[in-house]
Amino acid sequence: METRELRYFVAVAEELHFGRAAERLGMAQPPLSRAVRQLERRLGATLFDRNSRGVTLTEAGAVLLREGRAALDAVDAAERRTRRAANGPAGLVLVAKAGASSELLPKLLDAYAAEPGAVPVDVLLCGVGQQEGLLRDGRADVGLLHLPFDSAAGLDVERLTTEGQVAILPAGHPLTGRRTLTMAEVAAIPGMPMPRWPGRDGTYPDGPGPEVRDHAQLLQLIGLGRAAAVLPESCRPMLGPDLATVPVPDAPRVTTVIAWPPHSRSLALAGLIRTATRL
Amino acid sequence: METRELRYFVAVAEELHFGRAAERLGMAQPPLSRAVRQLERRLGATLFDRNSRGVTLTEAGAVLLREGRAALDAVDAAERRTRRAANGPAGLVLVAKAGASSELLPKLLDAYAAEPGAVPVDVLLCGVGQQEGLLRDGRADVGLLHLPFDSAAGLDVERLTTEGQVAILPAGHPLTGRRTLTMAEVAAIPGMPMPRWPGRDGTYPDGPGPEVRDHAQLLQLIGLGRAAAVLPESCRPMLGPDLATVPVPDAPRVTTVIAWPPHSRSLALAGLIRTATRL
DNA sequence: CCGCGTCGATACCTCACGGGTATCGGTGAT
DNA sequence: ATCACCGATACCCGTGAGGTATCGACGCGG
């Protein structure tokens, strides 16, 4: 199977429409139809049900979509990492969620920079749920993830810290007088619904809350009294005076891990991981 | 990057010889040379140092070899799993080291078969260190690994059991009278060196001990008085009367885990994993 | 010092196949 | 009944993958 065929298939599987997929791929529709049919013949598997009026994925097609995306990511990662290895003599790209781990991250970077043999570390801040993709397709070498929010599937990890969560409320809100709150109480505050985070595919679940992409955005909304949220304790130092926190003991505890793609444990990466676990 | 180019590169990188690589690929040498050069141009990276009289990998080439193998495995896995999904309506392939987990494995299979909605499970017994490859390229869906011997890099795992290790000696050997032994003592028994296991690339490290590939082979050698070994406790029930065991408290404890490729958690696989963790 | 063998690169040819345009056939909506 | 939509088919063309023949550089034995 060639990556070209795989890319064609994934495009069609995502669009569920040969014409649009062809447009996205910058080609005409007939050769795309032909290529997909040829792939089906070679695999001996029907990938799409063509119900004249759109297409749908078969079971085998769903498998190939899942596995094929992972394979394409791996190919992209190989290409990117090779390019990087050829140009700069090293350097690491560390990815973290914008606004998270605001204490841990500078500590880690300082501690690592002080190590003998440390290489330059580029920090890549991204939105929620994008880290895994960046790690898997080679745009980043190592990342800070927060379990159970992020999934570490397919990545190697080391535990760093575990912490409880707190509710974030506008200063002066009646509930800020409470010693603790429950998840149910926070979720039920009138007029301040819990925000909705994007899923792994970048789309938002349905619901009443505002759609948020990163922490800055969320904190602003809370300051405006338009939302309430539950976040890890470590976000406290970065809150302005307009926000208050109340512990939420029944919220799941959050584990911060350092994660990296398997089989890519370079010397520099190993040093960074060692530094992180010693903090 | 096309998989074809990647396969060509990997062949040359493994042979370090364009002629032999071309032969292995079933093609002539000139087009292979040209394809590799073109890949280098497209990547903007020199992959080989052509020192007239053989070739050697550059740093970037080493990166691409490592990452490219993983990528090719992922592509193969996608292809294999799609074919399987298209033909049989399911079934799982479970891989285990021949001779290991001899108690756990039948228990797991029986318990799973009794579950509602269980699918047929094919058991694939393999040599030491081959499980990861089989899982990564899609020939197997799930496996039993033994940490820290096997590496679970790039696989999702659930812990099943942890156990200590025992020395395996021929019955009647003077040391069988001891209550415990240390690793050092077992390694130093005259005339009975510790065996050498193959590494991840299938080659054996240098040393005095015999080369072994699976447990049956090893136990036979011990019975002949040609080797001593340290193995997990759970191997005891499968030893014949000609072998004796002595605990080795300072040997690393062995954790048996059930492992599967990430992103491939089918319903059937989830059931098997759930059954395993409940044992 | 000179052939000779080895090995990757180059030159050149051929044809398969990837991609384009034009068009068809089937189906649901109006 | 007609039309719009969408994937499949027919057919053409140019690129490029792969083949053969040969070159150029280097190491080695006589």
Automatic annotation (TrEMBL), chains A, B:
GO terms for molecular function: DNA binding; DNA-binding transcription factor activity. Residues 1-58 form the HTH lysR-type domain. Keywords: DNA-binding, Transcription, Transcription regulation. Transmembrane segments: none annotated. Gene3D superfamilies: Periplasmic binding protein-like II (3.40.190.10), Winged helix-like DNA-binding domain superfamily/Winged helix DNA-binding domain (1.10.10.10). InterPro entries: LysR_HTH_N, LysR_subst-bd, WH-like_DNA-bd_sf, WH_DNA-bd_sf. The keyword Nucleotide-binding does not apply. Pfam families: HTH_1 (PF00126), LysR_substrate (PF03466). PROSITE patterns: HTH_LYSR. One of its GO terms (cellular component) is protein-DNA complex. The keyword Hydrolase does not apply. It comes from the Bacteria. Belongs to the LysR transcriptional regulatory family. This is LysR family transcriptional regulator. It comes from Actinoplanes italicus.
